[in-house]
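Quick entry, no commentary yet.
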Amino acid sequence: MLIAKRDFAADHIWFADDIFALSPSWTRTFADAVESSGAALPFKMQSRPDLMTRDTVGALRRAGCSEVWMGAESGSQKILDAMEKGTRIEHIYEARENLRRHGIRACFFLQFGYPGETREDIDKTIKDGA
C-alpha cells in the first residue's frame, strides 16, 4: 500500500479477496503495519458478514477501509439455510451496524431466484434491506 501511495499516487485500492479479514489477529497486525508506515489509503474489500465484528471493523477503519462488499445473498433465513453457507440474518444486521458505526459503507451481493425461493422470501430481502 505504501508503494502504491508513494510511488504511483494511488488514491484507492480494491482488495478482491472474498475472505479478507478472515483472521482477526491478521487484520489487527495489518492495520498496525499500515498505520505505523503511513500507508493508509481508502480501500474497498470483500468479506463475509460474520467476520465484520466490532474489533475487526475498527482495525479495518484504521487501515483506511471505506467500503465492504459481503455476500448477504438473501433476507430470508430459509433461503440462507438452503444455501448452507452458515450465514444468519443476525450476522448481516450486525455487520451493517458495525460498519456504519465506523463510517464504512456496507454493500451486499444478493441472489434472487434461488431454488425454492418464494415471492415472500424475495420481499423479505427487499423489505429488510439485507
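second:
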Amino acid sequence: MQGVTTAFLEDVWSRNFLNLFASPLSIAEYITGLVIASVVTSTVGIIVMLLLATGIFHLQFFSMGLPLIAFLTVLFVFGISLGIFGSAIVLRLGPASEWLLWPLPALLSPFAAVFYPLAVLPPWMQSVSRALPPSYVFEGMRALLADRPFPVMLLLQGALVAGLELLLAAYFYGRVYRHAVRTGLLARYSAESVA
C-alpha cells in the first residue's frame, strides 16, 4: 500500500501530477506504472528482510515452501488495491487528506487476525474480517504452522476477495479521476490545496 501511495504522493508533492496527464498517458498506464514500481521495491525489501531475519534470528520462513509465496501474493494484491483506493481518496479530497492514508493499515490490523485466531474476535469483527484478505492469509499460515493440511479454501477465498477488491479499487480510482477532470479539480490541483 505504501509503495503505491508514496509514488502517487511524490507526483503530487513535486507538482508533476498535472504534467503526467497533460501527456498522452492513460489512467490505466499510470496506475500500472505505480503498481509495477511498488511491486519491484516491495519485493526487494521483502527479500532483504527475509534474508536478514533468517540469518540473524534463524527464523525459518522458507520451511512453508510454496504456500508462503501464494499467501504473500494475496497480501501483495490486497496492498496494491489499498494503495490505489488511498490514492483515489487523496485525488478526490486533495493533498491535505494524505494524513488519512498513513494510519489505514494500523486501523485494519485488528481485523486481519495477525496475532490471534479469527475465532476469538467478536462476531461483528469477524464479519469485517471476512472482507479483508489478510485474515484468510494469516489463518491459512497459522494452519500450516500447526501442521494441519494445506488450507486451499482459505487461500482461494483470500485470493478471490483480494482480486475483487483490486478491481473495485481500480474502478473507484477511474471514477474519481474522471470526476476530477470533468469538474476541473485536476486543473486546480497543486501540492498545497484544492481550490
